Amino acid sequence: MILETIQSPQDLKALSHSDLHTLVDEAREALIQKISHHGGHSGPNLGVVEMTVALHRVFDSPTDKLIFDVSHQTYVHKMLTGRAYSFLDVSQYDAVSGYTNPCESEHDLFTVGHTSTSLSLANGVAKARDLKGETYNVIALIGDGSLSGGLAYEGLNNIVELGSNTIVIVNDNDQSIAENHGGIYQNLRALRQSKGRAPNNFFKAMGFEYHYLDNGNDLDALLSLFESLKDCDHPVLCHIHTLKGKGLDFAEKNRESYHAGGPFDRETGAYVTLGQPQETYQSLITQALMAKMAHDPEVVVVNAGTPSILFNKTQREQIGKQFVDVGIAEGHAATMVAGLAKNGVKPIWAVFSTFMQRSYDSISHDIALNNLPATILVFGASINGMKDQSHLGIFDIPFLASIPNLIYLAPTNKEETFAMLEWSCDQNDHPVAIRVPVGEVVETNKQTNFDICHPYDVIEGDTVMVIGVGNFYALAQAIVKGLKEDHKINATLVNPKVLSGVPLSYLNNISPSHQIVVTLEDGVCDGGYGQRVSSALGHTSIKVFNYGLSAAFHDRYDVNTLLEDHGLSVSKISAKILDELKGSH
Amino acid sequence: MILETIQSPQDLKALSHSDLHTLVDEAREALIQKISHHGGHSGPNLGVVEMTVALHRVFDSPTDKLIFDVSHQTYVHKMLTGRAYSFLDVSQYDAVSGYTNPCESEHDLFTVGHTSTSLSLANGVAKARDLKGETYNVIALIGDGSLSGGLAYEGLNNIVELGSNTIVIVNDNDQSIAENHGGIYQNLRALRQSKGRAPNNFFKAMGFEYHYLDNGNDLDALLSLFESLKDCDHPVLCHIHTLKGKGLDFAEKNRESYHAGGPFDRETGAYVTLGQPQETYQSLITQALMAKMAHDPEVVVVNAGTPSILFNKTQREQIGKQFVDVGIAEGHAATMVAGLAKNGVKPIWAVFSTFMQRSYDSISHDIALNNLPATILVFGASINGMKDQSHLGIFDIPFLASIPNLIYLAPTNKEETFAMLEWSCDQNDHPVAIRVPVGEVVETNKQTNFDICHPYDVIEGDTVMVIGVGNFYALAQAIVKGLKEDHKINATLVNPKVLSGVPLSYLNNISPSHQIVVTLEDGVCDGGYGQRVSSALGHTSIKVFNYGLSAAFHDRYDVNTLLEDHGLSVSKISAKILDELKGSH
């Protein structure tokens, strides 16, 4: 097997032409083996097997710099840079991350995971090269989907300005995660259909020397193109048409389903289901929003490039004009939502916590400064969200809860979630964000209303108060239960519900018997909710302990270990409380 | 005077053709009168007098929706929508804001101030119109400078996708605040030079019906163009070439100086100087960076569209390739800085606090996640920074200080500022942001070093501790001095220097005699530094009081009043401390 002999890209240089073709076949086979057993980003990787082999044959990484957008398409790159073992050896499948990672290899320049950054990164790398008087190639790969993000445009704009060697490769498989939307995609289509000769050319208009390759899965054509551009002294752009999912019939045909996912049957494509619960917060919200939109033509759901967060293709077709996918453009999503709300309809923006941070200014300056009644549904905001360091959903409380006017809500169960959603859509006073619970659906089966004038729920007790935010309310309940049952301490239990402010009047009047307040939040402590409670109680002699996560880029962690490391367990927190009570007597 | 008779845009409809021309002259004269006496955005407004009159003659605001980018060019719009008094009556000059403001008029849709948002806002407004089955024109104005921001591109992309009436007006005066940079500007130039007929056309490539008008200061041509496009049923884009500063010879010739500024002599253009101190933190940093770059060819200063924050045109020419202006593209600036640092040079990014929030994800995901040694110089981060609600510099501690890996420093004087800058440039372990002091330069004339291992400075005392962050260290000093001199209390004074973490080991071991800790920060309290101190001291019986600003979009405030409203005075804080000490005895 040739792939097993490849320890570094240098090993590709010596291969015969026919061995290179064999390597492509072996890499694709290894890829299919791993993704069908292990899951991962199928479509994006299957589409660039030839391109990746050609890049490493022609260019000289790590002297030449390869920079990947999102870097979810780097599985073959990893195979060719000393990490084939993690694709060939089942026991090593988890040994490498799903994204580039400088800790793994000198051939991975950056830790990446969000979209549209590769061109700006390349622009910096190339500028540094020029300042140092060095000469080598800087190559940035970006998918057509990532071109919907404004940062990609800013990158193109500045690469042309720099004017020196930067080779931009647009990997156009005519598909984002789902289908593409927007004017740029009409142009990409026209360019594909005309084999790069359409009269209007976005890339030429931006100032690029433009090269089109129609068969982007033809190794020889790729080699020849890259050879012709290597060491050029100015920016060039290669628009390369590839086939997403190439090599798996069902993945080629159903490009959305096989963008990424869990293990599947490599013959039929059927995903291996792990007996997941049928009902999730997401599925419940999907149903509720579809009913809501059917009932009210002025409700509109906005999403930025991850439509399957709520609606599959069939559902999107059914919804029609009341669903908008703006591309991977969170800034636009938020600012558009401001425009929608201003002009009197009811926008609901569905977004993952990790991607929402790409729109901080749009949320603050457009939605919040204008105090417009929009609803933001924040998904994956939890230690139980995505666990890659580039996709964490644990920073949203600090960054959202300090934005004026915006009300950030943390429901703790199904009934609260929907009560808050209803309330948000019915009011016209403020933008509202709802931190959608993560994990198993908690049902109370109680009639539940929400009103910002009566935000928090309290089960009164004494001595100790446990404040459980959102997903961690269950932990607070368990602690209070344990204190009562095992230690006869009748602790107060608080569900604060609103994160963008603490219930000051309540905290100022809590029973003086309270000696200890514990706050629990499913996110980082620094700048978070608990610290606001500490501040509010600063004038009292009550001791306050804030529990949550440390502000760090935790990576591919085991949830239980991370919780344990942060003392986030019933036993540890209860022990701490008992210890403090003992000390104070 | 015709202008005085205009109470609403409806009044323009009845004017004769010659009266309309007179109105243009009167509006320009009123503009020159006010800006020469009062200051403001001269160039942008002088360039669009004819365009604004034409827009209000042809379209029917507020039924038709006019949406302005940044909205710094809306002075004539304000004159024509019932607010002429604020340009004609000297005593009313401050009665309207320098930006659109829905509180002032129904003709102002949004509060705006940041760049590149108008197209996305318009896209939302138009989508809402379509959902409601209404028909009217949605018109978005955007300057050429604002086209450097990726959000503008996202807006264009989605306006084409929506496909219904949206009239985009690109006001091209061939100038951002300073000169433009990037590939898009080569295209704009080619389009201007060819009168819109250049073979490569960015806007056509994006899918727009494109109209070019070369003399954008010709009222009749503008009227005719707008008439022809009114009520169109699809997106159109008008590329209109205007003259920035039109009507003032010196402003036409020196477009950077007269973009915005204070009062000037309308004959000579000489700015009225108010006897400002020669030396500012900015001027000191300018000198230091120029010396640093001359000494080290691998130091590079990056800026996003506000180069005069540090360097005027002559200085930029002198610096050459070691200064990069990426356009109004803060996201790109931050991500490019990551690329620069990764490839071994020393990037220093100079940015205003208010605009830095446009790059939250790039700072977190590209610079901080990759833990790259870049330096961010944060300007205007203070209650004494810009005072418009859309330009506040008071939110940066909450949003920056929770980003892992990044070290956020708050110097309190000149010597610390430069010690921190030196330290940051010399280290390779972390990204560092420095909150450049705002206000009069404080000099200690003491040899000062900075080292992250010995971050904070303490003057030990007892009973009371006052922690003064950055600009508010002086306030802390004054409080401590007053307590000593007037009340014989020997308070501890702390300069924490590092905002991205509290000195835990120090706080855990402070003298048990301390009963009260007061924190002072020049920014919002929620999510800020003081709350971290409250949290860290939560396990003690020490009382902690956090002083700073409330999380609100304070607007055109008087600094002293706002300080007073937040209890931020020596007398109020000292009284609070004394009161608490009394209470505890």
UniProtKB/TrEMBL annotation, chains A, B:
InterPro entries: Dxylulose-5-P_synthase, THDP-binding, Transketo_C/PFOR_II, Transketolase-like_Pyr-bd, Transketolase_C
One Pfam family recorded for the sequence: Transket_pyr
Top-level taxon in the UniProt lineage: Bacteria
Cofactor: Mg(2+)
One example GO MF annotation: metal ion binding
GO biological process: isopentenyl diphosphate biosynthetic process, methylerythritol 4-phosphate pathway; terpenoid biosynthetic process; thiamine biosynthetic process
EC number of this enzyme: 2.2.1.7
Cellular component per GO, a single term: cytosol
Pathway the protein acts in: Metabolic intermediate biosynthesis; 1-deoxy-D-xylulose 5-phosphate biosynthesis; 1-deoxy-D-xylulose 5-phosphate from D-glyceraldehyde 3-phosphate and pyruvate: step 1/1
Similarity section: Belongs to the transketolase family. DXPS subfamily.
Name of the protein described by the UniProt record: 1-deoxy-D-xylulose-5-phosphate synthase
Organism: Erysipelothrix larvae
